[in-house]
Amino acid sequence: MKIRVKLFGTLPQRYPGYDSSQGFEVEVPDGAKVKDLLARLEILPSDGGMVAVNNLVAQPNDPLKEGVSVLVLQSAFGG
Fold this sequence. Notes:
Layout (H helix, E strand, L loop, with lengths): L1 E6 L16 E4 L6 H7 L9 E4 L2 E3 L10 E5 L6
Parallel strand pairs: 1-5
Antiparallel strand pairs: 1-2, 3-4, 3-5
């Protein structure tokens, strides 16, 4: 199934050509969960942050559905 993903913080730098206005589409297997999508994108729990599915805060074991929009927000950092 196809999922629309938008990344925030420093995460977009990992994907050359990433378009911050559109995000990108990711193919995941039927039955995939939020944690499966993050693994597919190689985003580790240590990268910090929050995930929202269709603008609602999501947990790692929440299931994904075809066509949802996923935002991956990195925690604020700095000094």
